[in-house]
Give the backbone structure.
Amino acid sequence: MVDPKVLRDIPFFSDLSEGELATLARIVRRKDFRVGETIFRESEDGQSLYIIRKGEVKACKTGPDGELYTLTVMKDGEIFGEMSFLDGRPRSATIVALTDLETYVIEKSDFETLVDGNPRIIYKLLKNIVFTIHSIVRGMNIRYTEMINYMWGRRR
Protein backbone atom coordinates (compact mmCIF):
# COMPACT_ATOMS: atom_id res chain seq x y z
CA MET A 1 0.00 0.00 0.00
CA VAL A 2 1.17 3.52 -0.79
CA ASP A 3 0.33 6.81 0.86
CA PRO A 4 -2.77 8.27 -0.86
CA LYS A 5 -1.24 11.76 -0.57
CA VAL A 6 1.57 10.68 -2.89
CA LEU A 7 -0.96 9.54 -5.51
CA ARG A 8 -2.57 13.00 -5.49
CA ASP A 9 0.44 14.43 -7.35
CA ILE A 10 0.18 11.99 -10.26
CA PRO A 11 -1.90 13.26 -13.22
CA PHE A 12 -3.40 9.80 -13.84
CA PHE A 13 -5.12 10.02 -10.43
CA SER A 14 -5.88 13.75 -10.43
CA ASP A 15 -9.65 13.45 -10.81
CA LEU A 16 -10.06 11.08 -7.85
CA SER A 17 -11.41 12.37 -4.54
CA GLU A 18 -9.49 11.95 -1.28
CA GLY A 19 -11.70 9.00 -0.32
CA GLU A 20 -11.26 7.38 -3.73
CA LEU A 21 -7.49 7.80 -3.48
CA ALA A 22 -7.51 6.16 -0.04
CA THR A 23 -9.46 3.20 -1.44
CA LEU A 24 -7.20 2.89 -4.47
CA ALA A 25 -4.02 3.22 -2.40
CA ARG A 26 -4.79 -0.15 -0.81
CA ILE A 27 -4.13 -1.94 -4.12
CA VAL A 28 -1.32 0.22 -5.52
CA ARG A 29 2.23 -1.03 -4.97
CA ARG A 30 5.48 0.83 -5.49
CA LYS A 31 8.07 -0.87 -7.67
CA ASP A 32 11.49 0.57 -8.55
CA PHE A 33 13.77 -0.33 -11.45
CA ARG A 34 17.39 0.52 -12.28
CA VAL A 35 18.58 2.20 -15.46
CA GLY A 36 18.77 -0.37 -18.28
CA GLU A 37 16.48 -2.86 -16.54
CA THR A 38 13.77 -4.51 -18.64
CA ILE A 39 10.39 -4.15 -16.94
CA PHE A 40 8.72 -6.62 -19.29
CA ARG A 41 9.27 -8.12 -22.73
CA GLU A 42 7.14 -8.19 -25.83
CA SER A 43 4.95 -11.36 -25.98
CA GLU A 44 5.18 -12.02 -22.23
CA ASP A 45 2.01 -12.56 -20.28
CA GLY A 46 1.19 -9.77 -17.90
CA GLN A 47 -1.75 -7.96 -16.45
CA SER A 48 -0.14 -5.10 -14.56
CA LEU A 49 -0.65 -1.41 -15.17
CA TYR A 50 2.37 0.80 -14.44
CA ILE A 51 2.24 4.49 -13.61
CA ILE A 52 5.56 6.34 -13.78
CA ARG A 53 6.15 8.34 -10.62
CA LYS A 54 9.67 9.39 -11.55
CA GLY A 55 11.95 8.48 -14.44
CA GLU A 56 11.77 7.48 -18.08
CA VAL A 57 11.19 4.28 -20.04
CA LYS A 58 11.27 3.38 -23.69
CA ALA A 59 8.76 1.13 -25.44
CA CYS A 60 10.43 -1.05 -28.05
CA LYS A 61 9.53 -3.61 -30.69
CA THR A 62 11.83 -6.42 -31.73
CA GLY A 63 12.85 -6.25 -35.39
CA PRO A 64 13.47 -9.24 -37.67
CA ASP A 65 17.17 -8.97 -36.83
CA GLY A 66 16.45 -9.30 -33.09
CA GLU A 67 17.32 -5.64 -32.41
CA LEU A 68 15.08 -3.51 -30.21
CA TYR A 69 13.65 -0.48 -32.01
CA THR A 70 12.31 2.36 -29.89
CA LEU A 71 8.70 3.33 -30.53
CA THR A 72 8.34 6.01 -27.88
CA VAL A 73 9.72 7.34 -24.63
CA MET A 74 7.47 7.81 -21.59
CA LYS A 75 8.19 9.88 -18.50
CA ASP A 76 6.79 11.10 -15.18
CA GLY A 77 3.01 10.72 -14.90
CA GLU A 78 2.57 8.50 -17.95
CA ILE A 79 1.31 4.92 -17.91
CA PHE A 80 2.32 1.72 -19.67
CA GLY A 81 1.12 -1.87 -19.72
CA GLU A 82 -2.46 -0.69 -20.19
CA MET A 83 -3.19 -2.89 -23.20
CA SER A 84 -2.48 -6.23 -21.49
CA PHE A 85 -4.09 -4.86 -18.33
CA LEU A 86 -7.34 -4.39 -20.24
CA ASP A 87 -7.41 -7.27 -22.70
CA GLY A 88 -5.33 -9.96 -20.97
CA ARG A 89 -3.30 -10.59 -24.13
CA PRO A 90 0.51 -10.81 -24.18
CA ARG A 91 2.57 -7.63 -23.97
CA SER A 92 2.77 -5.74 -27.27
CA ALA A 93 6.18 -4.15 -26.61
CA THR A 94 9.29 -4.41 -24.49
CA ILE A 95 9.67 -1.72 -21.83
CA VAL A 96 13.18 -0.71 -20.70
CA ALA A 97 14.12 1.82 -18.00
CA LEU A 98 16.14 4.71 -19.44
CA THR A 99 16.78 6.12 -15.96
CA ASP A 100 16.37 4.89 -12.44
CA LEU A 101 12.63 4.48 -12.25
CA GLU A 102 9.96 4.71 -9.58
CA THR A 103 6.59 3.28 -10.58
CA TYR A 104 3.27 2.46 -9.02
CA VAL A 105 1.72 -0.81 -10.12
CA ILE A 106 -1.88 -1.97 -10.15
CA GLU A 107 -2.52 -5.67 -10.71
CA LYS A 108 -5.63 -6.51 -12.71
CA SER A 109 -6.80 -9.03 -10.09
CA ASP A 110 -6.61 -6.35 -7.39
CA PHE A 111 -8.33 -3.83 -9.66
CA GLU A 112 -11.18 -6.27 -10.24
CA THR A 113 -11.79 -6.54 -6.49
CA LEU A 114 -12.78 -2.85 -6.55
CA VAL A 115 -15.30 -3.16 -9.39
CA ASP A 116 -18.48 -4.02 -7.48
CA GLY A 117 -18.00 -1.71 -4.52
CA ASN A 118 -16.36 1.25 -6.25
CA PRO A 119 -17.78 1.76 -9.74
CA ARG A 120 -16.95 5.49 -9.75
CA ILE A 121 -13.23 4.81 -9.18
CA ILE A 122 -13.25 2.17 -11.92
CA TYR A 123 -15.01 4.57 -14.31
CA LYS A 124 -12.46 7.33 -13.68
CA LEU A 125 -9.44 5.04 -14.10
CA LEU A 126 -10.81 3.40 -17.24
CA LYS A 127 -11.59 6.84 -18.67
CA ASN A 128 -7.96 7.86 -18.08
CA ILE A 129 -6.69 4.67 -19.70
CA VAL A 130 -8.93 5.23 -22.73
CA PHE A 131 -7.69 8.83 -23.03
CA THR A 132 -4.12 7.51 -23.00
CA ILE A 133 -4.85 4.96 -25.72
CA HIS A 134 -6.74 7.59 -27.72
CA SER A 135 -3.73 9.89 -27.55
CA ILE A 136 -1.44 7.10 -28.79
CA VAL A 137 -3.74 6.33 -31.74
CA ARG A 138 -4.01 10.02 -32.69
CA GLY A 139 -0.23 10.31 -32.66
CA MET A 140 0.11 7.21 -34.82
CA ASN A 141 -2.44 8.58 -37.29
CA ILE A 142 -0.50 11.84 -37.58
CA ARG A 143 2.80 10.02 -38.14
CA TYR A 144 1.17 7.70 -40.69
CA THR A 145 -0.27 10.64 -42.63
CA GLU A 146 3.09 12.40 -42.58
CA MET A 147 4.76 9.24 -43.88
CA ILE A 148 2.24 8.84 -46.70
CA ASN A 149 2.60 12.50 -47.67
CA TYR A 150 6.38 12.14 -47.68
CA MET A 151 6.28 8.96 -49.76
CA TRP A 152 3.91 10.34 -52.38
CA GLY A 153 4.89 13.98 -52.08
CA ARG A 154 1.40 15.32 -51.67
CA ARG A 155 -0.79 16.78 -49.00
CA ARG A 156 -4.42 15.97 -48.34
Q: What stands out?
A: The mean pLDDT is 91.
